[in-house]
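Hi,

I'm pasting everything inline rather than attaching a file, because the server keeps stripping attachments. The sequence lines come first, and each chain or strand is labelled.
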Amino acid sequence: MQELDLEIDLEKSLGPWLGKTIKITDYYLHEAFQQHGLDISKEQMIVLGKLNKNDGLNQNEIADLIWRDKSSLARLLAKMEKKGYIIKRQHEQDRRVNLVYLTDSGREIFRKTRPIIQKAINILEMDLSKSEINRMIEILKRIQDNFTRELKSL
Amino acid sequence: MQELDLEIDLEKSLGPWLGKTIKITDYYLHEAFQQHGLDISKEQMIVLGKLNKNDGLNQNEIADLIWRDKSSLARLLAKMEKKGYIIKRQHEQDRRVNLVYLTDSGREIFRKTRPIIQKAINILEMDLSKSEINRMIEILKRIQDNFTRELKSL
DNA sequence: TAACTATGGTTGCATATGCAACTAATAGAT
DNA sequence: ATCTATTAGTTGCATATGCAACCATAGTTA
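And the predicted assembly:
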């Protein structure tokens, strides 16, 4: 929800500002990765991060962690596998399941994204105090809860 | 920037929360439009809103207003024209330019999205005071400025 | 054991998006 | 007046995303 324009004064609503903020942070990461010669998208980096923390997850688990549809995740993984960042291994007991592992190359590129990510976080929270950050997060969580509730009664 | 996972405790950073909030609000709008039988996407609705406020903009102007690439906007317009929500007319003096106008049908569907959008705004700002909203907007603007500045020095 | 159900993953179809290369047309400069 | 540069818009190629239908496998139930 960004840019809902009505007579209702939209610029005073939160929606468009949230959208634009995300857009700029995404663009920043994209540019930074590119300028460091890292052949990776933000989304792929997020997947690498999950695997780096917890290797050998299956596809559905990863999809849940990153709030994406399993089909979207499957396509991300296909690209990442082609680039050699991850490998999929069939689960020994349950042959439906693919367990996903980082390769050395995947681990390496994730390592290289670290300082870039850290810098993005620093910029994002540049002039916010710890308590302001926590307050913002609280508010965002509440907004999410409100929408979730309203969705159920839709 | 949502979900950057590192040893650096990510869940305490603002990024993922912003991303997830947008995701849920987008999903809410999508569901609400669908349930009201409105054959329109959020992005198309945003374009209709701009035209509703200011009919006869050209494509680049619209693209700027909604922070999208002109190619993306061109494709949005193509779909909207096919559905009969807008029409494009060549500028009389400058034949490179397309001026874009709402059709009656486009105006009508935008009218129908109004209460849905208003409700989404209400949910979004449900338990925030006016001053909190303004504070949040201020913070988001500052974050955007910070990223813009860093992008230049990248 | 056979039949039904639930689960993990893939694929078709659709949306939106950006960059870069391209065309057409206007504006500017020599 | 002609050549050049700029501008508006389109298109190819690529990314990411979700839903629904589907396949294969596993689990459950009759």
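Chain A touches chain B through 68 residues (CB under 8 Å).

If the labels don't parse on your end, tell me and I'll reformat.
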